[in-house]
Specification:
With about 300 residues, this protein is an alpha/beta fold. It is about 30% helix and about 25% strand. It has helices at about 5-15, 35-45, 70-85, 190-195, 210-220, 240-250, 265-270, 280-295, and strands at about 25, 60, 95-105, 110-115, 120, 125, 130-140, 150, 155-160, 170-175, 200-205, 230-235, 255, 275-280. The strands form four sheets. It has a six-stranded antiparallel β-barrel with strand order 3-4-9-7-6-10. A four-stranded parallel beta sheet has the order 12-11-13-14, with helices on both faces. A two-stranded parallel ribbon has the order 1-2. β1 (about 25), α2 and β2 (about 60) form a beta-alpha-beta unit. α6 (about 240-250) runs parallel beside α7. The longest helix has 14 residues, at about 70-85. It is globular. The two termini are about 35 Å apart. The model is unreliable at about 185-190 (pLDDT under 50).
Length: about 300
């Protein structure tokens, strides 16, 4: 049995192409069927040469479930960072990358980011290529409020006026020039004629966060189907009345991942005869979508 999924092999390729240093964590060693030596051999076959296997890439067998060797893995990561002699400029404008973005029903737009240079401070203006705002609340990876965060720190930010895209670069400071933020932004446009195509199977896709939305949309677009498949709208958040109305007007099916639909919105969907598919497990959700595509 092959250990690595296509996305894992893609990660290996990206790391090699970008010459990014990394360490390997071999997880689930607590299971009786765990075979660390087999994983090492397959890593070698993929061109990932571990220490003792013809290369210099450090590794640690761990169990995320029991905590076995997790401290040793953290020590390896710190050692790798020391070896790279990483430095940063504390006085520079903060910059980094957006890791996740979602809408919290109580706190509004929550954005998770990683700082790569400068110092990120509460009260700073912040911007990506597609979103901007002012940092009203800044929290560290433990959910504790922070006045400032230094590079390599994960940050939870509240204050964006609209949700940024996952993977975008951000800059923050007292004044931010949005045009100076470099990011590749893909936009998708569906013509009115396409939207009115009665032969097409149409979907409105909702997810709890932007990363899940991006992944779900990509999976759905790759599903085989004899008829045209159109995703009319993609957005983050719970399923509401407006989604039901839009689906009813365009004869679309709503697909929701890890989000909720209120009782009133479900009642409206029943009245409007709008089909709503929701699930917290993407495998089951895609199976439901495939059943529709096969009809």
């Amino acid at each position: 049995e092959v250990c690595f999924k296509p996305q894992t092999k893609e990660v290996f390729q990206i790391l090699n192409d970008t010459k990014t240093p990394f360490v390997v964590a071999i997880n689930k060693v607590d299971k009786p069927e765990a075979n660390v030596e087999k994983v090492k051999n397959e890593l070698t076959a993929e061109g990932v040469l571990l220490e003792g296997y013809g290369g210099h890439i450090s590794f640690e067998p761990i169990s995320a479930k029991t905590g076995q060797n997790v401290n040793e893995l953290l020590d390896l990561i710190l050692l790798a960072a020391d070896y790279e002699s990483l430095t940063y400029s504390p006085g520079a404008a903060a910059e980094g990358f957006i890791l996740e973005a979602k809408v919290d029903p109580r706190r509004g737009m929550e954005v998770t980011a990683i700082v790569k240079n400068g110092t990120l401070r509460q009260g700073d203006e912040i911007a990506t290529a597609t979103a901007k705002g002012k940092i009203k609340i800044l929290e560290n990876f433990q959910g504790e409020k922070a006045s400032e965060l230094s590079p390599s720190s994960p940050a939870l930010i509240i204050g964006f006026e609209n949700l940024p895209q996952v993977g975008e670069e951000f800059r923050a400071g007292k004044k931010v020039d949005v045009s100076a933020v470099k990011a590749a932004v893909q936009t998708r446009s569906i013509s009115q004629a396409d939207a009115q195509d009665e032969t097409a199977i149409k979907f409105i896709v909702k997810a709890s966060d932007s990363g899940s939305l991006e992944a779900l949309s990509a999976i759905m677009k790759a599903l085989p189907c004899e008829k045209p498949v159109l995703i009319l709208d993609e957005s983050v958040g719970d399923i509401g009345d407006n989604d039901i109305k839009n689906a009813a007007a365009s004869h679309a099916i709503i697909v929701g991942f890890k989000n909720k639909i209120s009782k009133s919105s479900q009642n409206l969907a029943d009245i409007q005869k709008v089909k709503v598919l929701t699930n917290d497990i993407v495998y089951h959700l895609i199976k439901d979508v495939e059943i529709i595509l096969m009809k």
